[in-house]
Amino acid sequence: xxxxxxxxxxxxxxxxxxxxxxxxxxxxxxxxxxxxxxxxxxxxxxxxxxxxxxxxxxxxxxxxxxxxxxxxxxxxxxxxxxxxxxxxxxxxxxxxxxxxxxxxxxxxxxxxxxxxxxxxxxxxxxxxxxxxxxxxxxxxxxxxxxxxxxxxxxxxxxxxxxxxxxxxxxxxxxxxxxxxxxxxxxxxxxxxxxxxxxxxxxxxxxxxxxxxxxxxxxxxxxxxxxxxxxxxxxxxxxxxxxxxxxxxxxxxxxxxxxxxxxxxxxxxxxxxxxxxx
Length: 277
Prior knowledge:
By secondary structure, the chain is of the alpha/beta class. It contains eleven helices and five strands.
């Protein structure tokens, strides 16, 4: 009897899955930097990384191109930098099928400045809490521009737009840490942990005063023997203060995407569990 019920359940599942189901995975999106998208060799290099690391069938994955204009829209307000269409290499894949928690895998052979922990911290600052993110580039790149693509991917797979204020705050966090790493001998992972610890304390105590945030950062640098300049500390404080100031927008975004993050796997598991029970 049990064998019959299992067979029946499998038949029902087969009937419910539409023909051609495997032709599109709406929970996975790739964003290619426009320089990479327009160069076949570059794109093949990036695609090989995604296939090997994420185990995806690229024929089933949606993709879009991140342009210099999209990157500059955010970058110019933070650093004053502007990028040309020949400078956008970094590419990212977001997989919401892997939905238990947020994870970031970075191609360290190509991404030279931004670490997985830095992306992780910035995404959490933006209210993103689930999915597996993969970041790579066909040539050596800092990885600073990849965050624009990552957040764009989340907008595609969730169909929820991230507020511009939140994007700017998250990108500012990335750029601030990148500049400190490039201009000092501080370890990138140590700096990322310091920022995470400070953000946690600031959030727990709802600190918005700049001087107080500076003092908290100072305490952590002393405790962890991290040597950064007073200017670096001021810039970090500005970045963390900006995140605190957009908490209302972050909370609104989290409310909108909470159902997507929680339901993409739970609904399927509950349905299958009910059939087999």
